[in-house]
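User: Here's a chain of 249 residues. Predict its fold as tokens.
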Amino acid sequence: MTRISLEESDSTMIEIEDEDNNKTSTKKIKDLEIFVPIAYGTISFWLGKKATETQSHTWTVYVRGATNEDLGVVIKKVVFQLHPSFSNARRVVESPPFELTERGWGEFEIAISIFFHDDACEKEKQLDLFHPLKLYSEVEHGPLSTKKPVIVESYNEIVFTNPSEKFLARVHDHPAVIMPRLPPTLNLPHVPTDDSRDDKRGDTKDHPHVQWFNKFSEADELLKLAEARQQVQNHIVKLRRRMSMLDNI
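Assistant: Prediction complete.
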């Protein structure tokens, strides 16, 4: 398991630009972390009698929620960089599910760049990952099968540190996002919701390959870890305040 932290600057305010290029300021919540568990990987199927020299397998590369929730609330777009032999090797997916399917015969490393919504972190900040495309199993040996795929997945936790109030208000009750219990004194701003949006439109719970996806138990424990970490951070803040008061005596 790898934890990827997207830490904001020390400034207490950030500027957010909307679709009309209007800039507004929003306050950041200090000493708070939001967790988004993700899985990314590839799944490939041998084409059997339909296989040719240049197209022996069909495969899909993807970024999904670790529990198959819709990541569109956090992720703006995903860019997949394929092997140069592919036509239009740089593929951009701007809506969930964040995946693409191709056919081919060779294995190679796929570069995955994840871009986030403007209120999630500083503008244009991206997360770069790399994942190997595997067409042949390194564990099982024997005849190839068209029914059982080769799947390779990685699990990561994206951590948003010191999130903006607008981002927090927008995602705090979304199932793809895990966060500690918020302070009762915290009043989040109202964020208008898009009634035309179906919250389940980008999840992968009904994905045709969901039966092959790995189940990551780490995601179930993440909330407990986040709450414990938040308690420690709150204690540190209180100690700093007491030390500051003693220094002023």
